Amino acid sequence: MKDFTVIFFQRKPRTYGNFSIEILFEAIRSKLPPFIHSKTVISKYESNGLWKRIYNTIEAYFRQGDINHVTGDVHFLTFLLKKKKTILTIHDCGFMNHPSRVARQILKLFWLKFPIARSELITVVSQATKDDILKHISCNPKKIVVIPNFILPGFNLFPKEFNSKQPRLLHIGTAPNKNLERLIEAIQGIDCQLDIIGKLNERQFKLLNNYNIQYTNYYNLTELEIIQRYHQCDILTFVSTFEGFGVPILEAQAIERAVITSSISSMPEVAGDGACLVDPYNVIDIRQGILRIIKDEEYRNQIIYKGKENVKHFKLEVIIKQYVNLYEQLLHS
User: Fold this and answer.
1) Tally of CB atoms within 10 A around 34
2) Quick check: helix, strand or coil at residue 296?
3) What is the pLDDT of residue 16?
């Protein structure tokens, strides 16, 4: 195979932002075969305002490679790139839930319609995201390729006896879609400890205190500290109202913890048969799911075992091969 270069175009991370995209593609680059040379181009400015975005787009034009891969969020960087050599990764369409109709139309044009038209191939992390894109714009479905996320090294089997008397629940994320408020209501009166990763707002603090929930709150954790929280928990609660993917499901399954997650969006696709699926908008359903995991040992062991089998489909090596095949396809097209 002849050597070639893939340029990974990445956003400039916000000071207090989410670094999941950066972590994801750093792991991918580290495992690429030797005939693929990779280079990361980080935009000079954060994705704020018209002029900074225009500058970032022009800058990207002058830094192209044999293959251009816009890794997410800054979809507009595709505008001046060579279409036939450009891949765009779209992680989710959450931005289309913006409350303003005008904003949704602008986002639809500049984050979906135009970037997709200016890219030869689109990768998405779930079938749910692909379906969302096709719901919002007209596009050849064959142009959109599903390549899921993967489990990072470090999330490995860590045996722990289930604490059925006072289980420790791990909840990751405090943004509106993470559905913490309904979870708090659902576990009222259940003897448990809730560990929350993510900075709480005033309303969430108030709910936790009003419902007398025993909880601890962590944020700005290192990856090792997050893994330690998984090790200590008995159940992962991931009852989001929307997710582009849902990596915590796989992380908990890899460590062999019971998972309760939502029956909508991408979560059933990611969890497979290795989780208790509930309606995230129904507090009673969430509560009953948690109680079933706590009280029904046979059911709990069954979803833990199926979760362990499920994660085999999401190993880094498996995902790398899919990206390499895509790069080679584009190179020879």
Assistant:
1) 7
2) coil
3) 54
- Residue identified by tokens 């069954």 is 302
Tokens of 269: 């696709």
Q: What structural domains does the chain harbor?
A: 4-150+315-331 (3.40.50.2000), 168-314 (3.40.50.2000)
Burial 73-88 (b: 16+ CB within 10 A, else e): bbbbbbbebeeebbbb
Q: How far apart are CA 183 and CA 230, in angstroms?
A: 18
- CA 296, CA 37: separation in Å to the nearest integer? 51
Measured distance between the N- and C-terminal CA atoms of the chain, rounded to whole angstroms: 15
pLDDT score recorded for residue 114: 97
The DSSP code sequence of 198-256 is S---HHHHHHHHHTT--EEEE-S--HHHHHHHHHH-SEEEE--S--S--HHHHHHHHHT
What's the rounded Cα separation, in Å, for the pair 255 and 156?
Answer: 5
pLDDT digits (tens, 9 = 90+) for 189-245: 999 999 999 999 999 999 999 999 999 999 989 889 999 999 999 999 999 999 999
Q: What is the pLDDT of residue 20?
A: 79
Cα separation, 312 vs 151, whole angstroms: 10
28: tokens are: 């991918």
Dihedral angle of Cα 188, 190, 192, 198, to the nearest 10 degrees? -30
Structure tokens at 254: 């890899």
In DSSP terms, 170 is beta-bridged to 195, 236
> In the structure encoding, which two tokens stand for residue 175, read together?
């943004």
pTM of the complete model = 0.89
Three-class DSSP category at 165:
coil
Q: Is 122 in contact with 145 (CB distance < 8 Å)?
A: yes
Q: What percent of the chain has pLDDT over 70?
A: 98
- Calculate the alpha carbon distances from 32 to 71, 204, 256, 332 in Å: 16, 43, 29, 18
At 49, the amino acid letter reads G
CA-to-CA separations, 96 to 10, 17, 119, 240, in angstroms, rounded: 21, 19, 20, 17
Distance CA 146, CA 149 (A): 10
